[in-house]
């Protein structure tokens, strides 16, 4: 076991403190019980700093820390496009999408689809999201978290996954979104602190370099190919990150699907105390996104040189790049290793808790409540807790057979999500801004997304994944528009009324948006 007694003590203190905070913020006033708004949306009282911190803590999980570190080892900084472009998407979502969601007072993304297209589209997407979050997202986070935990503890991967799942369930099932969001403030501090520690240690251990800064300089000078944001067409990873198409193509579709219409992400903003707070929270998250590659990608690049110097196990990394972060954690000294391990646990359990809460929200509010209406609020809260627990159990069973055989867990999630993301983005954007689009058009986009994806994946496998997603998105939009014109117009109450919604934003948000775009432009110009 790579963890000492001191390391285990630090992890234990972290776990106990997190559980205590979760229970304290979840306590109910005497004589009151949680209703669905309290449990699923934190009583719509989240401030901006909790929203921003929780967004990042929920997003930066095993698939980012472990998956992107592995991709940093195998590919380089180009994988940071998934982080940096997300910052711009967060700004767009805050300005153009949140005003619509919050004005309509929705709990879930399927609820919006019900208001816009009707019950059929809502039910289809509810089932899809419950299945995706359970069979893909939960399983991926569990599997990658289990791999890293196995590297340090020596426990079987299955036991590591069970321990992570049990801890996430323990602190989140009782308190709901409020417990998840407010404990995420602790999680994100530990996550960033531990991530920076690993980055510093990895760079500092590079031979013939003067400290961590010198190590970074040596990496940049001796491995310039790993610091290119735009890959050449002959690069082995071009199929995943196809050069300039990472800026022009389907990566934006994946980002909008994830950050704009993904329940377990957008749910924090839906729980905001006001639109202005939600927008500040997303702007805060956008700034945090700019720094994430420093703690998840740079260590992976450093591992390439460390492996050549014998500082980390080159055999383990060559066998599976997703083991990169686990091997780097072994470099941390006693005590600090416990803090870094706690940071990893923080990332994993935060995302697990968020996904569990979103699965329970969608199942309870969009599926179960439609079939079993009129029950007491506490009944729906209880159902939500049982569903979250069941989803975690299913993910534990599915994790190894679903994810364990793939080379990169991170790319696997993108691949699975990409089958439906183009249809989801098309349906929401047309639902916002095209009054003529109807339920038939929505179904065409959703089913067409899967059909065209499958056709291109197997019929034209040479098309890079990101380009394929863009082609499918355009086909979904065209199909939805044509089908809507060939069928009757939606009823007058279905199109979203925008005349009573203000899209104006405050000076602080506008200044933050300009700063984010300017910083990203500078990054891409320098690292092109």
What's the short version?
With 528 residues, this protein is an all-alpha fold.
First and last CA, distance: 42 Å
Return the CATH architecture of the domain at 64-407: Up-down Bundle
Output the CATH homologous superfamily of the domain at 64-407. Answer: Sodium/glucose cotransporter
Indicate the mean pLDDT: 84
Rg on CA atoms, Å: 22 Å
Helix and strand element order? HHHHHHHHHHHHHHHHHHHHHHHH
Report the oligomer. single chain
CATH class of the domain at 64-407: Mainly Alpha
Describe the largest sheet.
none
- The CATH topology label of the domain at 64-407 is Sodium/glucose cotransporter
**So how many helices?**
24
Fraction in helix:
over 70%
**How many strand units?**
0
Spans of at least 5 consecutive residues with low confidence: none
Structural class computed from helices and strand pairing: mainly alpha
The proportion of residues in beta strands is under 5%
Q: What would you say this structure looks like, in words?
A:
The chain has 528 residues and is mainly alpha-helical. It has a domain at 64-407: Up-down Bundle (Sodium/glucose cotransporter). Helix content is 74%, strand content 0%. It has 24 helices and no strands. The radius of gyration is 22 Å and the shape is globular. The mean pLDDT is 84.
